[in-house]
């Protein structure tokens, strides 16, 4: 019981600390915020916070952070790759978070309703994304599928998994090593819009691609920064 109370207290302090970090960081770049997160919370605790907030993509970014000057080194590399993806993949929403990148595709861009076969326009987008991933080999990639709440829980979970796998398969067929990619389906479990509205359901039907540093890049960052 004491151990549980200690854990709860620790997590509460960490969450409060992150709130202080973010409230004082409005003028900082994404890279600088990434360094602050990693230094202030730590990778493992960051993963807990991200998942507890119901955001697997953000949890993956925070959970892989090294923080400090090494985190800033990684962040600069991610800044450059994010700019490249924004320029070459017009069908995606590209967000820099901490030491990673979150690339979001609305499922309507990738798939027909309730289908897992990629549309032709989606294939072009993913080909361009694959080129960027090949240009930046020191990263790991998570592909996360999401749905709205139309249909049964089991159907939505299965659909989200198969769509994530379809995206991974297409990326690997374009020359990205399969060992760099993992997939997960979240079904209807992580909505970002209101499922009671047409617009909200459309927002929830999405695939997120999370790009983070691999172990080799983390080690390079620590060596280069003397951390």
Automatic annotation (TrEMBL):
Species per Swiss-Prot/TrEMBL record: Mucilaginibacter gynuensis
Keywords, sorted A to Z: Cell outer membrane, Membrane, Signal
Gene3D superfamilies registered for this protein in UniProt: OmpA-like domain
InterPro entries referenced in this protein's UniProt entry, alphabetically: Bact_OuterMem_StrucFunc (IPR050330), Gly-zipper (IPR039567), OMP_bac (IPR006664), OmpA-like (IPR006665), OmpA-like_sf (IPR036737)
Name of one Pfam family that matches: OmpA
Protein localization: Cell outer membrane
Keyword Signal: yes
Main localization of the protein described in the UniProt heading: membrane
Domain OmpA-like stretches: 98-215
Endpoints of the signal sequence: 1-16
Descriptive protein name: OmpA family protein
């Amino acid at each position: 019981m004491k151990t549980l109370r200690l854990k709860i207290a620790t997590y509460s302090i960490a969450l409060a600390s992150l709130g202080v970090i973010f409230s004082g960081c409005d003028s900082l770049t994404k890279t600088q915020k990434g360094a602050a997160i990693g230094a202030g919370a730590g990778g493992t605790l960051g993963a807990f916070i991200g998942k507890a907030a119901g955001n697997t993509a953000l949890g993956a970014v925070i959970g892989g952070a090294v923080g400090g000057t090494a985190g800033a080194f990684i962040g600069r590399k991610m800044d450059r790759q994010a700019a490249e993806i924004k320029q070459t993949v017009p069908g995606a929403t590209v967000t820099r978070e901490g030491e990673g990148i979150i690339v979001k595709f609305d499922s309507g861009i990738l798939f027909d309703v309730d289908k897992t076969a990629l549309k032709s326009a989606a294939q072009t987008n993913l080909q361009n994304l694959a080129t960027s991933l090949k240009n930046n080999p020191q990263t790991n990639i998570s592909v996360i599928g999401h749905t709205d709440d139309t249909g049964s829980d089991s159907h939505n979970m299965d659909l989200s998994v198969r769509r994530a796998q379809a995206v991974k398969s297409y990326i690997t067929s374009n020359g990205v090593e399969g060992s760099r990619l993992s997939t997960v389906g979240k079904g209807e479990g992580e909505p970002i819009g209101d499922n009671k509205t047409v617009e909200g359901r459309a927002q929830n039907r999405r695939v997120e691609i999370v790009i983070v540093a691999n172990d080799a890049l983390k080690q390079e960052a620590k060596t280069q920064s003397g951390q």
